[in-house]
Amino acid sequence: MILSDFDLWNYIRSGRLVIEPFRDDVVRENGLDLRIGRQMARLKPVDKVLDVHGDDVSEFYEIEEGDSFVIRPREHVLLHTAEYIKLPLDLMGFVNLRSSYARIGLTIPPTIIDANFEGQLTIELVGGEFPVKLYSGNRFLHVVFAKLSSPVEKPYAGKYQGQRGVRLPSFKD
């Protein structure tokens, strides 16, 4: 079952779904809009092969902080949400790019938020055909929440739990 704004308000008011900082305007008809944070990780153009079984991935990224970021054509970057969220055991989320951004050629890969996840979201964003300037604090993601048929027996407790800012990929189990 997809949650409506009525259901989302009930989860938020009861403290079962946490969004910090919280603003009333994040609650939409059937989901939450989340804003761009102040950090971006840009892939570096390097000739080295990334070995997912041993290399430090930070060698392959440049991390930038600021109030705005320019996304180059077809560039892959990592952004994070300004909001820190915490999901209960009976909710999961489908993360979508807001349609205004999709209409200018930006894309994100299919992304979900697991039940019990807690943290700021790190999202891969792919540039379109022309450079686009994005601003921290602008709403850019829409998360649709689905109520699970029962609370999960194995809640998310993975390597990205509690993350803040852009979190680079980790291949260590």
Q: What is the rounded Rg?
A: 17 Å
Task: Report the order of strands and helices.
Answer: HEEEEEEEHEEEE
- Broad shape: globular
Whole-Å distance between the termini? Answer: 32 Å
Any low-confidence stretches, pLDDT <50, length ≥5?
Answer: none
Average pLDDT for all residues: 95
Helix content: under 10%
Supply the number of helical segments: 2
Total individual domains? 1
CATH superfamily: Deoxyuridine triphosphatase (dUTPase)
Number of strands: 11
Alpha-beta content class:
mainly beta
- Please give the CATH class: Mainly Beta
Largest sheet: 9 strands, antiparallel
User: Could you say what the CATH topology is called?
Assistant: Deoxyuridine 5'-Triphosphate Nucleotidohydrolase, Chain A
Under the CATH scheme, the architecture is Distorted Sandwich
β-strand percent reads: 35-45%
Structure description:
The chain is mostly beta strands. It has a single domain (5-46, 53-147), classed as Deoxyuridine 5'-Triphosphate Nucleotidohydrolase, Chain A, CATH 2.70.40. Helices cover 8% and strands 40% of the residues. The strands form 2 sheets. Strands 1, 2, 3, 4, 6, 7, 8, 9 and 11 form a 9-stranded antiparallel beta sheet that branches. A two-stranded antiparallel sheet has the order 5-10. Strand 2 and strand 3 (31-43) form a beta hairpin. The mean pLDDT is 95.
